[in-house]
């Protein structure tokens, strides 16, 4: 319920459309009641052969009522749908903003297909919240109250009959239907999430499934998941139609009851027979507002579940704290970074990735982090980027990293990760992601500097860089990092796919560019580390050694052994 309250508050921001929807919905409903009442009265009057001007006046009233009802219904649809589309648009912006703040930590908890289902399917499910849940009951109550006040001038017995019908069709029967439909609605959301997850996995793993000849098996699993989802939707549709039909049947029974009561009142002289047809026609049309209430609990439950699924994802961002102006200025110079007893483990992973890590990266220093695979080297970089939250303290220029917004850090960091994403477009488009001020001549020289002189700025780059080799991706990623004016460099295996000669040229360009900047490089290779101010050696999530190249070689510890192993392999 609290999640739906957030959505209602969001809708109130555009309250003009909401108020107009209720206003025109009420006008259309009450006009329909008046129109049917006038028709019933006209039928009765016509049987008594009144003067022609009376019939002409009544016909004119009916015609005017028809126009008012049609225009009001159109306006109600227009404003209600505009309010709904505005709400959905605002929700998408809100949730995507929250997801962007959470970043890659989302994938510790949710699979990509499940996320897709939540931010697309669940948001779409909330379109029924306003159209089927929020304002229809308000319109129904207003129309019923106005109708009952009008009918009370003619017969209190008929008023009681209409009230009983209202309670049955708008409260008792929908509550009964809700209990029956609850399990179905829950299964629909679960099956939709599972289908989205299976489809995403099928697309992501298409190549591997084909290579390992598991494509047909995965397709069968996908079709089975789709069939289950379709079956649940069909079952929900059948039940919805049945519930509406039952509600309509009850409303018709109420109309028969009004006919019977009215006939008895006319026979007893308590009601003028001229108004009997009018009351019957009113009973027909007034329940037009309550029959759709059969689906009210279903749409409410669906909206509540969808809202809970969405807010369960973005609630992680509420702990974010604003950044002060003073801390904003800290990243304009080459920053220092300190880790103090930092520990980290991925969710649902019993193994600790980092354990009591205490290291310092002085301002303007050049640091290499080495060690075997799985020792936590890349995790250190991700923590600096605030991709994850860890125990312990991480300080940037002496200020806790929690007091910095991610955007402030990202703005001043040049990053090359193990997997760099490339967008569909041209080489120029992928180089100018952060700085549009580079001229074509400067970009061409930059390509030469990173050993890509044969690439043209207008050469196409396919999605995820599919037309580039592994080495070309790394060099283009390095060029993109150089094109960004940051003072902190976080490089994760930036040259793992390059030969030694190209690697040396690339590092020469890097150190020229980052002469006064803070540079942190994660590498498996131990060659060329003599230029580093310090080397951090890690193993199994712990810092084993820290020192310069000459110091670590003299101590003949863990790093020395790694160096000897590398020499023996290369020989």
* CATH structural class of the largest domain: Alpha Beta
CATH H level, superfamily name of the largest domain: P-loop containing nucleotide triphosphate hydrolases
Work out the count of structural domains. 2
What is the number of helical segments per DSSP (H or I, 4+ residues)?
A: 20
**Fraction in beta strands:** 5-15%
Rg calculated over all Cα atoms: 35 Å
Task: Give me the CATH fold name of the largest domain.
Answer: Rossmann fold
- Please identify, by name, the CATH architecture of the largest domain: 3-Layer(aba) Sandwich
Annotation, overall tally of beta strands: 12
End-to-end span in angstroms? 68 Å
Proportion of residues in helical segments: 55-70%
Give a short summary of the structure:
This protein is α/β, with parallel strands linked by helices and 571 residues long. Helix content is 62%, strand content 10%. It is built from 20 helices and 12 strands.
Descriptive report:
- By secondary structure, the chain is α/β, with parallel strands linked by helices.
- The protein has two domains: 227 residues, ABC transporter type 1, transmembrane domain (ABC transporter transmembrane region fold), CATH 1.20.1560; 241 residues, P-loop containing nucleotide triphosphate hydrolases (Rossmann fold, 3-Layer(aba) Sandwich), CATH 3.40.50.
- Helices cover 62% and strands 10% of the residues.
- The chain is built from 20 helices and twelve strands.
- The strands form three sheets. The protein has a six-stranded mixed beta sheet, sandwiched between helices. It has a four-stranded antiparallel beta sheet with strand order 2-1-4-5, with helices on one face.
- Helix 3 packs parallel to helix 11 and helix 4 packs antiparallel against helix 7.
- The longest helix has 53 residues.
- The chain is elongated.
- The two termini are 68 Å apart.
- 36% of the residues are buried.
- About 2% of the residues have low confidence.
- One of its GO terms (cellular component) is plasma membrane.
- It is found in: Cell membrane.
- This is Thiol reductant ABC exporter subunit CydC.
- It is a multi-pass membrane protein.
- It comes from Halalkalibacter alkaliphilus.
